[in-house]
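Batch queue: ligand-bound targets. Current item pairs a single chain with nicotinamide-adenine-dinucleotide. No template structures supplied; prediction is de novo from sequence plus SMILES. Inputs echoed for audit trail.
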Amino acid sequence: MKTVLITGASGDVGTHLRRELAGRYKLKLSDLRPLADKAKGEVFAKADISRMADALRITKGVDAIVHLGGYSVEGPWEGILQANIIGCYNMFEAARRNGVKRFLFATSNHAVGFYPRKQKIDHRVYIKPDGRYGVSKVFGEALGSLYSDKYGMEVFLMRIGNVNARPIDKRRLSIVFTPRDLAQLVSIGIDHPKIRFEIVYGVSGNKRSWYDNSNAYRLGYEPQDDSESYAKEILERNEKEHPVGALYQGGAFTHVESVPNPAPLPKK
Ligand SMILES: NC(=O)c1ccc[n+]([C@@H]2O[C@H](COP(=O)([O-])OP(=O)(O)OC[C@H]3O[C@@H](n4cnc5c(N)ncnc54)[C@H](O)[C@@H]3O)[C@@H](O)[C@H]2O)c1
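Prediction returned. Tokens below.
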């Protein structure tokens, strides 16, 4: 059984993944914050990935890394710098030094958030980040490209839409990514024998998707869920969107300097 490190394991996506991947891999969980409900047998290592020594410690002896840890919304530069720029670099570099072959990175729809909603985009489009957070995800994608080309690391970049059991608004009808579809795509990223450097969209099989996700399908992804069954109910709410946000895939990130309630800096 492969040993898989999940960073950011105490967060929303990590919590879904721990549940969905239990028993399929030997999971090594890590985060700055403790796990809320550590189950019997779960292995947890507290680490601050903005410190290289911590990154080196947690990446020892693992077959693959699912790198989720970091600042997960738009926010102050200092927080993004520490977690998503320095932290992400440390994770790739520590993985290289420890000989970890495979690296899955949770990048985001916000790396390409300034594409208009009326345009369908695939994995080959040029980046169009919609904020500092989006730029930090592009930085992680660039590291993935470098570590794949220069060091032969097998890198799987998932531009995640919105992880949720169901879409919460009109925008999310296009980008929702259910936990079981997330787990399927992550398993492909861990197990597919022929990954060198791939970009895929982390979304379910949504009818209203803005993505041509053919690269994920080529690798065997068969999403089980489609947000369409929620469309009528959500559209009937007639919720007003900001006129700029409504144009672009990144939604509110495209027109606010920082979201009204930016996530607090992680406590060390
Ligand atoms: N949730 C989504 O729908 C979504 C969409 C697109 C991309 N993503 C990406 O997926 C990943 C997980 O997202 P999430 O929603 O679970 O976010 P989250 O904020 O719930 O979890 C992120 C975790 O990273 C940890 N972390 C932050 N700084 C750290 C540091 N310096 N060292 C170690 N751990 C640190 C936090 O403690 C937190 O538990 C993030 O990288 C995010 O950008 C998520």
